[in-house]
Design brief:
Elements (H helix, E strand, L loop, with lengths): L11 E7 L4 H11 L9 E5 L2 E8 L2 E8 L4 E6 L10 H8 L4 E4 L10 H14 L3 E3 L8 E4 L8 E8 L4 E8 L2 E8 L3 E3 L4
């Protein structure tokens, strides 16, 4: 499903540099207070690109949200007038928000090229609904199985299917190698055990 919206006249995408770990707070603040500050005709969208990452710790699978661009929030807004001069009120509302270090470009914010924002949105779209393993594996790598019927056995990675989040692993059972299909989170690098 595409979330294409028509871009309001004069609106451009800008990157905001934020304090580490404050990205969500900045996004929430800007979205919440733009109405109170009567800036709805200047600020249109605040984007914090993320993906879901899974990992196994102590035999338990956990998922968390990871920022694709830590320390940055992207904002679609009307910031420059027809003479390419900064419009003061929205500039200071955004720049002075708690957690914001400033616009990329400082006092002369440079808008992102459409190709740059398209790439960012494509990464977000690609990550939507998918879990990405925190650890990536390589063919031929030795792994230890941490979950399922083959738990505590070691094997060798034969195939990797990132689209399905699965690995084909050869496991030695009674002196014979048997192919087993497992999910990423069911194994860990043999060197980590």
């Amino acid at each position: 499903m595409s979330t294409e919206t028509t871009t309001p006249t004069g609106a451009q995408w800008f990157a905001l540099h934020t304090l580490s770990g404050q990205e969500q707070k900045v996004k929430t603040y800007l979205e919440k207070f733009k109405k109170a500050e009567e800036l709805e005709d200047h600020i249109f969208e605040v984007l914090l690109p993320t993906e879901v990452v899974s990992e196994v710790k102590g035999g338990k699978k956990t998922t968390k949200i990871r920022k694709l661009y830590p320390g940055y929030v992207f904002i679609n807004m009307r910031l420059l007038d027809e003479n390419a001069k900064v419009i003061i009120k929205p500039f200071y509302f955004v720049k002075d928000a708690a957690g914001v270090i400033g616009f990329v470009g400082g006092d002369n914010p440079a808008p992102l090229r459409q190709s740059e924002i398209d790439e960012i949105k494509a990464r977000v779209e690609a990550a939507t609904g998918k879990e990405v393993p925190k650890v990536s594996f390589e063919v031929g790598e030795e792994v230890k199985i941490t979950d399922g019927a083959f738990a505590n056995l070691t094997g060798r990675v034969d195939e990797i299917d990132p689209a399905r989040g699965k690995l084909k692993i050869s496991v030695s059972i009674f002196g014979r190698f048997t192919p087993v299909e497992l999910e990423y989170w069911q194994v860990q690098r043999a060197s980590e055990s």
